[in-house]
Design brief:
By secondary structure, the chain is mainly beta. The protein has a single domain, classed as Hotdog Thioesterase (Thiol Ester Dehydrase, Chain A), CATH 3.10.129. It contains 2 helices and 11 strands; from the N terminus they run E-E-E-E-H-E-E-E-E-E-E-E-H. The strands form 3 sheets. The protein has a 5-stranded antiparallel sheet with strand order 4-7-8-9-6. Strands 1-3-2 form a 3-stranded antiparallel sheet, with no helix packed on it. The longest helix has 16 residues. The protein is elongated and about 50 Å long. It starts with 5 loop residues before the first strand and ends with a helix. This is 1,4-dihydroxy-2-naphthoyl-CoA hydrolase. It is an enzyme of class 3 (hydrolase). GO terms for molecular function: 1,4-dihydroxy-2-naphthoyl-CoA thioesterase activity; fatty acyl-CoA hydrolase activity. InterPro entries: 4-hydroxybenzoyl-CoA_TE, HB-CoA_thioesterase_AS, HotDog_dom_sf, Thioestr_dom. It comes from Stieleria varia.
Length: 180
Amino acid sequence: MRPDLFMERQLHFRVSPLHCPTVADLVGFGDKVAFSTARVPLPMSFLTRRRVEFRDTDAAGIVHFSAFFPMMEVAEHEMLRSLGIAILPDHDSTPRLTWPRVSAQCDYVSAARFEDELQIEVRIGKIGNSSVRYDFAFRNDETMVAKGSMTAVCCELLPGGGLAKATIPTEIREKFASVG
């Protein structure tokens, strides 16, 4: 890419269901932006909002680091519901799939406080054969608050309650690709 295509500025861009931009609109490289004429669709992301509750905060009224993990899980569940993916399998479904977490992490960028309304963006960071990594971005207005990720493994719920690793079915993989 030619260096003269870049301009220095902070990019705050969100994809909405009403506007699916293409690389022709813009291509982001961290804080640098390049404009291009290629017509490749950019991936969508799932957006939700959550107001910071008193129970999420410490004595100073700042969101406690541990509160971001339940927020990530709730945002994940909202995204899965929006895609029509079951969180808990029906007794009649075959196979009976569930998604235990094997990894979770969060990096904190700036403080959020009691009653702030956070926007939580969820993207599919990586889809493996049997695992999926969800990437999360927490914003308060345009200010980045935290970035996190969770990795879940697709498992079949066995009779008696045991779990067996399973390949992510094609129809679920295609649904994940819409928020990748």
